[in-house]
Write a structure and sequence with these properties.
By secondary structure, the protein is of the alpha+beta class. The protein is built from six helices and 13 strands. The chain folds into two domains: 57 residues, Winged helix-like DNA-binding domain superfamily/Winged helix DNA-binding domain (Arc Repressor Mutant, subunit A, Orthogonal Bundle), CATH 1.10.10.10; 104 residues, ATPase, nucleotide binding domain (Nucleotidyltransferase, domain 5, 2-Layer Sandwich). A five-stranded mixed β-sheet has the order 6-5-4-7-11. A three-stranded antiparallel β-sheet has the order 1-3-2. A three-stranded antiparallel β-sheet has the order 8-9-10. The radius of gyration is 21 Å and the shape is elongated. The mean pLDDT is 89.
Length: 205
């Protein structure tokens, strides 16, 4: 139901019920909960179709913040984004040759600095890392040669530190996903090739 409101941007409770197949009572109760959580707001009246004008609902873009970080190249960079993928704040820290534990500490420093700038509840953290990611081991970094990380349980470490959901993936893979979802053009198939201290590639089919 939240996705229906989000996708339509402005929609009445009756139309939510029609599109989701839920009863109006169920929709009304769920909308009440979403209003309390400030995930949905009432934005005014819609056009009347003969009866009382409906109250329109919308998902505020800044109802929640997310943090995305790129732990690659010669710097660690990150941003705070809202629910529409709009960047609210950016920050980069030079890597300066750090590896192993020192590189991990720099990642903490970056995310700590971003966390204090969030303006809404933090929904989660997304991390792009150069190297081989092992989803069978909780998205641990199996091997990131440029950072000297071997079987580093990065997702677990970040979740324990920040107490929010964390998603870790190869940096080329998340670049392909980002272009697929938020690029100016919608692609049926695309390949992303990332060239830096190494060469990586990912495909979204």
């Amino acid at each position: 139901m939240l996705k229906t409101i989000f996708d339509r941007n402005e929609i009445s409770r009756a139309d939510v019920a029609r599109l989701t197949g839920l009863t109006r009572t169920t929709v009304s109760q769920a909308v009440g909960t979403l209003l309390e959580q400030k995930l949905v707001k009432e934005i005014g009246q819609g056009a009347s179709t003969g009866g009382k004008p409906p109250i329109l609902l919308s998902v505020p873009s800044n109802a929640r913040n997310l943090i995305g970080v790129d732990l690659g190249s010669n710097e660690f960079s990150g941003a705070i984004v809202n629910l529409r993928g709009e960047v609210r704040y950016r920050l980069s820290l030079p890597l300066d040759g750090r590896q192993g534990k020192d590189a991990l500490e720099l990642a903490y420093e970056l995310i700590d600095a971003l966390q204090v700038r969030v303006t809404s509840p933090l929904l989660g953290i997304g991390v792009g890392v150069p190297g081989v990611i092992n989803p069978a081991k909780g998205s641990s970094v199996h091997w990131a040669v440029n950072l000297s990380w071997l079987d580093l349980p990065l997702r677990d470490l970040l979740q324990q530190r920040y107490q929010v959901p964390v998603y870790v993936a190869n940096d080329s893979q998340v670049a392909a996903l980002a272009e697929s979802f938020f690029g100016k053009q919608r692609h049926t198939n695309l390949i992303v090739i990332k060239v830096g201290r190494g060469v990586g590639a990912a495909a979204e089919l």
